Amino acid sequence: MLIWKRPISVAELTAISVNTAVDHLGMEFLEVGEDFIRARVPVDHRTQQPYGLLHGGVSVVLAETLGSCGAAYASPAGQLAVGLDINANHLKGVTSGWVTGTARPVHIGRTTQVWQIDLQNDAGELTCVSRITMAVLPPR
To answer: What are the entry keywords (predicted)?
Structure first.
């Protein structure tokens, strides 16, 4: 079931991310489905912590990016979706390659949305699970 309230595409998400943290960290939007968004981030000098692992904060940036984009495009035109809370459980370290995140809604309400974001390494192993709660604000 299509959840998007306004036009969304990989090209659109890429365009709005120019000169942002998404761009700086090398994130790439990969796919927009009827009820999900998928993107990935490289594990390299921009995203690793001193031990050579993907920095946990970068996993959260990927999760928040996906959940925020999902909420924004699943909200009626003119409304703003802003983050209220995010959590992340880091399950497996990653030292190279890419981490790919997929965001799907758990709840799309009139004033709040909740999104689940699962991150996987190149082998398809779950590396992090995250959930974000978004407030949906009326037009200003």
So the answer is: Hydrolase
Residue 1: which pLDDT band, with cuts at 50, 70 and 90?
confident
What is the rounded CA–CA span in Å between residue 66 and residue 76? Answer: 18
119 vs 15: CA distance, rounded Å: 23
User: Per the structure block, which two tokens stand in for 66?
Assistant: 């996906």
Residue 24 lies in domain: 10-137
Measure the CA–CA gap between 123 and 121, rounded to whole angstroms.
5
23 domain-assigned: yes
Q: Does a structural domain hold residue 48?
A: yes
By residue count, the chain amounts to 140
Q: Per-residue pLDDT tens for 50-72? A: 999 999 999 999 999 999 999 99
Out of 28, 31, 34, 64, which one is annotated catalytic? 64
Beta strands in the chain (DSSP E): 28-32, 37-42, 80-90, 98-108, 112-120, 126-137
Where residue 115 sits, what CATH number does that domain have? 3.10.129.10
